[in-house]
Specification:
By secondary structure, this protein is mainly α. It is built from 9 helices and no strands. It is about 75% helix and about 0% strand. Helix 6 crosses helix 8 and helix 6 packs antiparallel against helix 9.
């Protein structure tokens, strides 16, 4: 049932997504203020500019927006249950798994860039590879290439140069192992289910055609 009363909608919003949205908005405002402080560093705002460099972690707090995908997932599940056929739903599940895998690699790529970007002392993979002077799209595609390489797809000449980077590589290696095993088993199961459901639908259509022909 669709609720249209403003008081009920507002009350439900306060109990559910208000805090998350408030955090995201505050992070965006903080990043905007710090960016303006960086631009004004030559006008006596050197101290604030240093502070902005130490607060680069704010970029990653924006990932809290991903939590809102929980609501989107509930809507998509309702759509699956009420509108899709069994075969189409299996195909949709297959593409959804691939999409989730791509999203996971995107997040890993962003975190890998952040590990090198946040470390302002010593050698990092970002400084040693010469990517700091490249444009953002080349940096992103390189990080994404590295993320896929951890799944065993291709190879990229990027190495860890400090303890945080090495620890992150270990975590990604374990996650990639789990992801690969899960992805292969899930896709195999879905393909088997899809083939079975297609055969069942063809059998039902043949029975229907036979019934209509003799009725």
């Amino acid at each position: 049932m669709l609720v249209m009363r403003f008081s009920n909608v507002f009350s439900n919003y306060l109990r559910s997504w208000f805090l998350l949205d408030l955090i995201v908005v505050c992070v965006d405002w903080a990043m905007t203020i710090l960016a303006l402080a960086d631009e004004a560093k030559g006008d006596g705002a050197t101290g604030v500019a240093r502070l902005s460099k130490s607060l680069r972690l704010l970029h990653f707090l924006r990932l809290t927006r991903v939590v809102r995908m929980i609501k989107t997932n509930a809507i998509l599940r309702h759509f699956e249950e009420n509108t899709l056929s069994q075969v189409t739903m299996t195909q949709y599940s297959l593409f959804k798994i691939l999409g989730m895998m791509l999203l996971e690699q995107h997040v890993i790529a962003c975190l890998w860039f952040g590990v090198g970007y946040l470390n302002m002392t010593g050698a990092t993979w970002l400084s040693m590879s010469g990517l700091q002077q490249q444009d953002v799209w080349y940096q992103y595609t390189t990080c994404l290439h590295w993320a896929f390489a951890q799944l065993g797809v291709g190879n990229v000449e990027i190495e860890a140069y400090n303890v945080p980077e090495r620890a992150f590589c270990i975590c990604v290696a374990v996650l990639s192992l789990i992801t690969t095993a899960t992805l292969v088993s899930t896709i195999t199961s879905l393909m088997t289910t899809l083939d079975k459901k297609r055969n069942d639908e063809m059998h039902q259509f043949r029975n229907l055609h036979r019934f209509l022909r003799h009725s």
